[in-house]
Structure prediction request, 337 residues.
Amino acid sequence: MRRIGFVLLICLPAMAAVTGTVVNRTTGKPQAGAKVGLYKLVNAFELAEQVKSDEHGSFTVNQNLEGANPFMIRATYEGVSYIHMIPPGSSSTGLTLSVFDSSTEPGGAKIVKHMILFQPTGGQMTVSETFLIDNDGKTAWNDLAHGALHFYLPVASGGKADVHATAPDAGGMGIAADLLTSPAPDVFGVNFPIKPGETRIDLNYTVPYIEGAPYQGKVVSKDENTYLVAPNGVTLAGDKLNDLGPEPRTQAHIYGLEGTAYKIQLTGAPVAVAADTPPADSADASDGAPQVEVAMPHVFGQVGLILGLALGILALGFAMLYRASATDRETNERGRG
Prediction:
């Protein structure tokens, strides 16, 4: 009977339970009561099962993880969700999921880069803004009533803007975020938590455009560095601007903004730069003057993406995240060998 029972046991489908511990990185202790959901990739990620961590922060999700698709674990605590991917073939036991306390105050969060791109075409102009927010603290900034990030939206936009946000644990995949009104006129908030790490928020809106006419804007967020960007072919003029020169690859012209408001005039129209066009700071173009690329902040390596995608989200997707994880796993295995 024992032998028959053993044979029956090994013939059963393998059920690889997902186990682990939720740790609160704010307190440094296991976190009880966090929601832990297992998502399977079918046509999209679909919730397979959800449990809560116990008094020791431990959780168990009894699901079959066989198959060639990745899985996703989402731990939710104090209204903020944290993502953990499980690539096929990797261990699903003994996981450690990190969460943080939430606060309506910024804490260690600050805007380290703010880029505003102006793209006039015909009688309209698309204004695209990117905020890079670095949170080096131990709490998530989550203000559901007013929004964490605030920005100025001119009346001419009709109060409409497309907003996408990319969390530090999302593998580069952005999601749509909601706008929140504020008591201040023409100021809106973004309903998206700012977790520890780097968060990117992209917004786009359209306003009427008359070539050469003054255009005004404000910066209501507390930015460390704000830059105005004009595409190749567009001339931007205004006061209190620090001319940083063209970005080498796209020839977009970049200006540092002094202060919290701007009044500019734009002329011309965007001109595409050929993919094989050598950068302006190449050896053939060098005239002995200091090259702009050396003095520019590292973030402007992304200006090409901004122009090409109009500051759209970097939709790398979870498949790319899986590939990166698989590559890292192979590298670690070779290192151990």
